[in-house]
Every structure is written in C-alpha cells, then in structure tokens.
C-alpha cells in the first residue's frame, strides 16, 4: 500500500514539475498575459481537467514559477548591502531567464487583478528569502535634502531598474557608451557603498 502511495506521489510531483517547466517556457516565449490554461495543458499533453487538479488557474501557475525563482535567488544569508548587490549581479549573470520572467511578472501583477491569497503567499516567500534591506541602511543624514534611508531605497531600485533594462533589451551600454554590464553595476555598487562607509561624515548630516 505504501509503495503504491509513494509511486502515486512521485508521479504527481513529476507531473507538477512538468506543468511548471512547460508553463515557464510558454510564459517566456509569449508573455504572461498571452498564456491560458488550455495552452499549458496542450503543452503537457494533458486535459484541462487534469491541469486543474494541480493548479486552480493561470495566476496560481504564474506565482508558483515566480516563487521558485525567489527561492533560487534567496539572499537571506547576505549580511550587508555590498553582499546583496554582489549577489544580485551574480544571479543576473548566471540566470538571465529568471530575471526576464521576474520583469514580466512585475508588469503582470501591476496590470491584473490578483487574488489576495496569492499576494499574501508571495509576500511570505519574499520575507523568507530576502533580508530586510531597510535595516541595513543608515537612518541619520541626508543627501541633497533627501533622508539617507530614502536615498538608498531609490538607489537600490535604480540598480534593479538597470538590470531589468539589460534583461528586457538583451543588451547593456557597451555598444553605445563602451560600458559593460559588469562595469555599470560596479559603478552603482561603489557609489552606494561609498555613501554607507561615509555616513558618519558631518557633510551628510
């Protein structure tokens, strides 16, 4: 009985992996909003009824794929901003498809009505895998009149926007300005971490 149950569970897990793999491929090829449950079912060679036994809709599949990415990307062990930025760029260079999917995901969740349970589940995964960056930022001081912590939040999002741009366009600034992706990111990192190292400077107070 246990052997039969274990075999069924293995088959179930394998089918689930297949669904997520095929769905991810379709999402990257067509975009998230263009893929329907019937497309995923056809790609897996199963009926829609069978697919619904695993996922109750396309949003559930999209969020599960993104949660897998966040778990692979996990930087919970990074202790400072420098380590986080290094981790971010290293993951980008090694997993560009993941960043491309995340870029599509960001657009999708801001342009579609998403069930609250999926949003809560996703935030829980973020909390589990991503450290509280705000706790690493200085709270005293200003830069050009902006509170230092807000300055860093904007600067970190700028770094993310740079990676998003390079991911979506499939290019960096090498041809236009002779600046590689690695150099672009190093310049941003040095600027951010340089301010952190000098946060006690009276000129920043």
Low-confidence residue ranges: 200-205
Largest sheet: 2 strands, antiparallel
Helix content: over 70%
Strand count = 2
Annotation field: number of helices: 10
- What percent strand? under 5%
* Rg over CA atoms: 21 Å
N-end to C-end Cα span: 70 Å
Spatial arrangement of strands, main beta sheet: 1-2
**Structural class per helix/strand content?**
mainly alpha
Give the averaged pLDDT, no decimals.
85
Structure description:
Helices cover 71% and strands 2% of the residues. A two-stranded antiparallel sheet has the order 1-2. The longest helix is centred in the N-terminal third of the chain and has 29 residues. The C terminus is likely disordered. Helix 5 packs antiparallel against helix 10. It is mainly α and 205 residues long.
Question: What's the SSE blueprint?
Answer:
Layout lengths: L1 H29 L6 H8 L3 H5 L5 H16 L7 H14 L1 H16 L4 H14 L12 E2 L2 E2 H22 L4 H4 L3 H17 L8
